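User: Fold this, then the next.

Assistant: Folding the first:
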Amino acid sequence: MYQSQLLELRQRLLYAEKENKQRSHELSSALDEIKHIVAKRMNSTTNHTDDMKWKELNLTRKLPVHLTNMYYYLPHLREYEDVIFPNVIFGQQRTGVSLVMGIPTVKREKQHYLINTLHSLLYELSEEQKNNCVIIIFVAEVDAEYVNSVAESVKTSFPREIQSGVLEVISPPASYYPDLSNLKKTFGDSEDRVRWRTKQNLDYSFLMLYAQPKGTFYLQLEDDIIAKPDYIQSIENFAAKQSQEWMILEFSQLGFIGKLFKSEDLPLIVEFFLMFYKDKPIDWLIDHLLWVKVCNPEKDAIHCEKEKAKLRIRAKPSLFQHVGIYSSLAGKIQNLKDKDFGKNVLHKTHNNPPAKVDTSLRTYQQYTLGKVYKGEDCFWASAPVAGDYISFTFLNPLKVEKYFFRSGNMEHPGDKLFNTTVEVLPADEMLRKELVDNGSKFNYPATKDGYLKIGAFENGIAEGSINQSIGKIQAIRLSVNSDSPVWAILSEVFIKTSEN
């Protein structure tokens, strides 16, 4: 009996897959229309929760064909008009990108990891990469006050990324979720766990459907991870070299982290999730979907696993590591670690010219300033205050061409230098005296002790070239201009001279 039912289900999925390729453009067309109208109404990012509901866009309320089955699996949706259209809190409705990343986040009883996760994902991304991706934060809660607090936190931490459209924050309408109070307990799970995993399936489904028309590939992430610095390029390279049809590329061995899908496959996948959203966890459902697609009931389990492995391809080493300890399920502690992730490189090494290093900051343990200058480790210090400094005084005056300083690292991406200027001290004493007496003639502000302010940290990085007419440089100083709420890490120092 089960074999015939599975075969029937398999045929149904194959048909749905065929239909999906013809109809997925409908979501794309709708989103393009939304983008066009929003662009006309917005000159800057605004909060859409209150002043711009989706129905104001005058779009047809008719669902794309491949979404109408949601009414069968979630019959309560028939009572509400806008139930599958999200509240877009912040975003520029970006479409046409290569990679869409989805991050569901929910209220946790203890520690929150979202901002650090976003720091990690955006760390070292080039402008080209930022322009060709979008990260969707799905706040899977219906408490408007909490949703807006998360959105404001993201906007405060990443104003440029919100403005440019690389980050979007959305939430579901309150009426999206069915009654989850009387679910059948299965697999020995408690009532709370069954409710948690059931809602999680609905969250993933909503997020995937919203993301589907935005780009070519969809990457499923979680809100408590860190990423390797080159993760986007590694994903592109691995996907490009696949010579056979695939359904999932895995960039982490844990749960539902780092799973890459083709966007055109998402409606089919979501429909399968919705068929069984109350029955099993999301990672089990993915495995069952692969079984339905490629496993022959007349052959053994070994053959089945080999066939599934053709559609589900694992990349090594892993690009994402789980860092959260406190689960979104109340009371659950999870010390899950991906052994294939390897060790993070927390600093970069450069051949810097000989110099004496000094700082007013209080160094943490063995993470000294001298070590980062020599490329041996990072420099880590307690929270800077206004007037603090980090200085590099060259043993011999040098012609410095360029400088590069990076604060924060992969494990502590938020420990950056804020409101900090880069200053150089000319070796010419007569020039220094002139700067103190008469100010700068190089279009740089001068300090009272003869330094020239030539740059500043932006988003944790300070880099630039030095006007060669200044002549040889005796010292470079990083000056903190205001108190910082966080500790500071200096993970990379590169001073380029004509000799190195």
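Now the next one, as you asked:
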Amino acid sequence: MWAKTVTGNFAKVIHGLNANQLTDQVIQRSKRMILDTLGVGLLGTSTEVCQKVTQYSKIYSSDLSSTIWGHLDFRLPPLYAAFVNGVAVHSMDFDDTWHPATHPSGAVLSAVIALSEAFPQKKKISGLDLLLAFNVGIEVQGRLLHFSREARNIPKRFHPPAVVGTMGSAAACAKLLALDQLECKNALAIAASYAGAPLANAATQIKPLHVGNAAKHGLEAACLALQGLQGNKQILDMESGMGAFYTDYNPQTLPTLQSYPWLLDQQDVAIKRFPAHLATHWVADAASSVRRKLVESSENLLPLDKIEKIILKVPEVKYVNRPSPASEHEARHSFQFVACSALLDGSMSVQSFSTENVHRPALQELLRKTQLEHPPDNTPSFDSLYCEVSIILEGGNTISDRCTTFYGHWRKPLKKEDLEKKFQSNALGILPAEAVEGIVETVYNLEKVEDCSVLSAFLSGQSARALPEKLRFL
């Protein structure tokens, strides 16, 4: 019998979905998401914000502990491992992005990996268990976002991972803990009371905490539900429940469990080539193309002195309109910075956002010449926006180019070799090469892994030689 409420319906789906229902495409896409998320998380461990929250979290101790990615001899209780690793994933805004708009993987993956290490030795969590829980968490986020047309555009008030990421993390952990339907309802209710963070903290060191908190709070919600804590059994049905986050919230029942259609089957994610807000990736590709045209006619040198004006035609997204970014976090959320940086260098990278590069004189000169325009047909949706970059030179000549789909977008996904290059580039500065190779092999074979603690071992920096007994596949 199908549940009478949307919340009950979600609980039934969370409880009832099984690994046999994962399609090949969902498995392949989610493994790409997992590999990418682990890579950006490992790179993120080197950031100032991650180091600060790591130091803070050291005040907590417990006999039960989970891996802090990139640390061989440092572990934390599962809740704080989920928190620190979640912060690491989003610390550079390098993690994946979905449509409707959110960063789907960071909160869910950080939570389920930390939780998987908390199970007793006799209850091993397999790679397939991890894949199923991960995908349940992704699915719940997508379904909730589809209940609002407002959510399909780039957000204006709440940061989506702090809202749906918390719910997805709770659902994923509920699945891994094998909660019954009533406990799943309670986990969602508890998570909803943890959800939400204002977008005003975008472009600051606080924004990564949204993903860390979503991971921690989702895990905590599932654990509290397991202990019998009860909340509103209709939390997803009510305007004062999840409807509090969206002005046009319209909840619907999910498809039946028989032949369940996963949203990840229908909608892939975007995987970023450089660490900045997704909307800036259209700007980077258009600006790089304009630079190539400029350089062709200027003997391979960018004619800075001949550039009179730079016009960027982009959607109106207030928190990515930053004409004079003063920090790396502001630069990652600046149409203007990314356009000028790509014009100077021809491409974007992790190094583009160093303090030295953010404040270099040539870039500051270009920023002063840059202005935004917002054509009415350029809607603020990751599925339809475009960017047009125009350079007006002395004498009135104009050189322009437009990007409608950047490389890495779900319409133009990264090739496998480019995804692996990104992961290796991110991870090799943090972990030994053997551990990096071990992560790649484990993720690519995740559905065959008998004990997914091998993944945590590699994430801490152990080599395959140190754990031969764990390298078993089904």
